[in-house]
Amino acid sequence: MKFQELFAYQKSISLSMHIFEVSKKFPKEETYSLTDQIRRSSRSVSAAIAEAYRKRAYPRHFTSKLTDGDAENSETQVWLEYAFRCKYLLEEDYKKLQVESEEVGKLINYMILNPGKFGVKTEE
């Protein structure tokens, strides 16, 4: 299996692309702050999932990379809230993106709790 086939990876890519699209409408003065931050953190989630999958021969590294991805996902939620409170996002878009982010978090958590299902050698 390739990391691109992981459901968590696919959902995180989808979320980051949705964020990319909505962030195109953020004000120009946010280009090097909120826009950059939210894009970077959302993209880091899928990168961390890919790295974790490649590190699956090392259980602690697998978990560590996934927890990094979960942290980046939480950071993304913070930036989404700022974007909403600054009125750069409609409430409907904000809620949809938050739900997507929560789904990604649940999928990452599933991977952390079930490493054996992803090829990680666990002690028996």
Provide an overview of this structure:
The chain has 124 residues and is mainly alpha-helical. The chain has one domain (3-115): de novo design (two linked rop proteins) (Up-down Bundle), CATH 1.20.1440.60. It contains 4 helices and no strands. The chain has helices spanning 7-23, 31-54, 59-85, 91-113.
Q: Notable features of this structure?
A:
4 helices, de novo design (two linked rop proteins), mainly alpha
Q: Let me know the number of strands.
A: 0
Q: Per CATH, which architecture?
A: Up-down Bundle
The unreliable regions are none
The overall pLDDT average reads 96
- Helix tally equals 4
Order of helices and strands: HHHH
SSE-based structural type: mainly alpha
- How far apart lie the N and C ends? 23 Å
CATH topology: de novo design (two linked rop proteins)
Kindly provide the radius of gyration, computed on alpha-carbon positions and rounded to a whole number of angstroms: 15 Å
Task: Give the CATH level 1 class.
Answer: Mainly Alpha
Please give the largest β-sheet: none
Query: Helicity, in percent?
Result: over 70%
Name given to the CATH homologous superfamily: 23S rRNA-intervening sequence
Strand content: under 5%
Number of domains: 1
Based on CA inertia axes, which overall geometry fits? elongated
